[in-house]
Amino acid sequence: MATVYDAVVVGSGAAGGMAATQLCMKGLKVLMLERGPKFDISTDFHHHRKPYSYPFRGRIRPSERAIYNYAANEWNKKHFVNELENPYTGKKFVWVRAQAVGGKTLHWGLVSLRFSPQDFQAASHDGVGTDWPISYEDVEPYYSKVEDWIGVCGHANRLENNPDSHFLPPVPLTCAESIFKGQIEGKLAGRHVIHGRSAVVTTPRFHGRAPCHYCGHCGRVCAVAASFSSVGVLLPIAEKTGNLTTRTNAVVWKVTTDKENRAKSVVFIDRVTRQVEEVYGKVIVMGAGTLDTTRILLNSKNEDHPDGLGNSSGVLGKYFCEQIMAGDITGFIPRLKGNTNRGGDAHPDGGGIYIPKFRNLKEKRKDFVRGYGFEGGGGSSEFPGFANKIPGFGASFKEEVKKYYATVISIGSFGEVIPRAENHVEIDPVVRDTWGIPVLKFEVEWGPNELAMARDAVDTQREMFKAAGIEIINERTDPLTPGWSIHSAGTARMGNDPKTSYLNKFNQSHDIKNLFVADAACFVNSTEKNPTLTILALSMRTADYVAEQMRSGALG
Amino acid sequence: MNQGRRDALKKLAMGVGGLTTLPILGQAKAAAPAMPPMRVPDADPQSAANWKPQFFDAHQNETLIALTELIIPATDTPGAKAALVNRYLDLRYNEETPENQEAILQALAWFDGRSLSVHNKPFISLTESQQKTLLEALAEPANSKPEDDPGVKAFTLIKSLTIFGYYTSQIGLDEELKYEGDRLNASFPGACTHPEHQA
In A188-275, which ranges are E strands? Predict the structure, then answer.
């Protein structure tokens, strides 16, 4: 007899790692599947290595550029998929995928923002789209539990649309950030420049974790897990329960169902040996990340589920949403010329400044619904990219670079992409990946709302820099390619109506009661806020519900 | 700050550090490029005494040394020549795309072309003062003439590569900029301590 686990969890990042850990803590026997290997973050990555200790200075060498996505570098590249082995088709889209225990939490940007009450009921506010079947009050206890567990630093600003977390002390602002904050808040009513809210430990002895050591390079994989990663913070707890089995190198192909319309097994292909294996669970929890989860569910179609597993609604793959990176802007703060600070970017990722959404909060604009926020940072940074904008050459040029080094400030926008049915992914009928699994085809593009919002974001970035007396040296005014934000969401959305949603309000399939989706595929809309804190909260909530339903016998 | 996403952007936006290649859609059958064996990061063959250029010829290499040192010279700290920026560029361009290889060879050739037409000598045989005069026409694109466009393009490319190579070198990062990240700090070294900067 094959082992039947209480739960098989697909994925090991924010969603999969949290679901697996919470289920283990509730006493369930869990098998967690991960397509990549398991790295030891304390020895397999070297985030303090200087750029010059790599022959290509930490950048991906030219002969490997086709293999890696834009977020990869010499420090972190081993946890990403090989793009050539993992193709996808359709419209232009950037799909950054991890392949390691911990998933994208190994390099993520750490920005941690609670969604607001209005975010969950945005459709009621502006009449566009659909409300979530849950409210802020449903999620709030889970935000609190997650924050108390993983550690989120920041400052309580009491802003209605950016609810405060249970914060650890914020990272201090740099000179450039302090001046910018004073200028904006003094000159533009309704604009706030707040401390970055980042999933990093800023106090000693927080659950025994090492505090941040301010090297500035979380994205190169923090070797001591001062910044949150699933593999550094959650999974060691899961392993201690004795309830977790991890199967690495498991490239999941499909989920099968039995005659009683229950999810029965997960079929995967060993990434290395190419052998097909099947594993069994009383419950299957998908947490592979929005698009991989959706790909697996679409690839799981069978006689009883001809359009994809549990897809009687037809919405699986539809209502894709994310954030548009509309523009960004960089400049010098003239009065800081000659400032000698030399560690301006040595804060944790996400620990600089954040400008919360200021459009469509109370008023309603005619040109677009929803809004955008800006992430930013100021001060000296490891590489002085601004030097290209300093004219001339020679000794005077070299001196100017040094004088301007700490004067730089930069912000970039993340705007809500409205979920629309036509923005969707499907299975390509022809192309397969290296393991023979059919790949995703993207039918995703910006709509009029995104483009109008993007124009406004470009106008306001310039407006703020001018108001603050900043000498603008570089401006990007065209949106980046869809997918660039790595905030994909919404392709298996939740809802109360089984005809128009894939999941119920507990992240449970309407059609198959022992099938759950714990990642951002469940989102009804993306908001302008970074998704990971909400993924963690909803994954924990899903796991609590699964454990409770199993205990009561409701899941058989 | 969302480091990976925004850093990659800044590089793109400012033309620094070469091309960022996006995943190619629908290229399932694309063959993997030949993969040279990985170098051991800490054993630095670029500083070896018997180093020889692999991509550039000896004359191009000398031209590159002269140009990079003119752009970032030795002052109270060493310059681009001492930082071996030319050796980094040789390593990199040895495996760059044919288009990028062509672009840098054309850029180097432009300096000789201009030098030969004005002084009847290759660029590296000019006096430093003559070399500087030649570059000055290009360094301020607003002041340059239309016929200088290829030269401005050549200078901008070499300058951008020099900036990248120098400020990612030990000399540029540690001695010149004195960057304080990439190490264990007891507290945030970038913290503002000036009351006059506070909101």
Answer: 194-195, 244-247, 250-257, 263-270
Interface contact flag, A474 B13, Cβ < 8 Å: yes
- Across B13-28, average pLDDT: 36
User: What is d(CA A129, CA A140) in angstroms, rounded to the nearest whole number?
Assistant: 23
Residue type, position B136, single letter: E
- DSSP β-bridge partners for residue A200: A227
- CB nearest B9 (choices: A219, A328, A380): A328
CB-based contact B165:B46 (threshold 8 Å): no
Tokens representing A192 are 């706030």
Distance CA A271, CA A34 (A): 10
Of B30, B182, B192, the CB nearest to A216: B182
Residues A188 and A191: their CA atoms lie apart, in Å, by: 6
B103 Cβ neighbours under 8 A, 6+ residues apart? B157
CA gap B144, B131 in Å, rounded? 16
Comparing alpha-carbon positions, the chain B residue that sits nearest to A110 is: B2
Band of pLDDT at residue B140, cut at 50, 70 and 90: confident
- Give per-residue pLDDT as tens, B49-60: 899 999 999 999
| Residue A19, token pair as written in the block | 């679901």
Note the pLDDT of residue B144.
74
Residues near A45 by beta carbon (within 8 Å), at least 6 away in sequence: A39, A75, A76, A78, A220, A221, A223
Closest CA to B63 of B106, B96, B92: B106
Q: Do the chains contact at B185 and A481, CB–CB below 8 Å?
A: no
What is the pTM assigned to this prediction? 0.94
d(CA B68, CA B73): 8
Q: What is the end-to-end Cα distance of chain B in Å, rounded?
A: 20
Q: What is the ipTM of this complex?
A: 0.95
**Looking at per-residue confidence, does A527 or B198 come out higher?**
A527
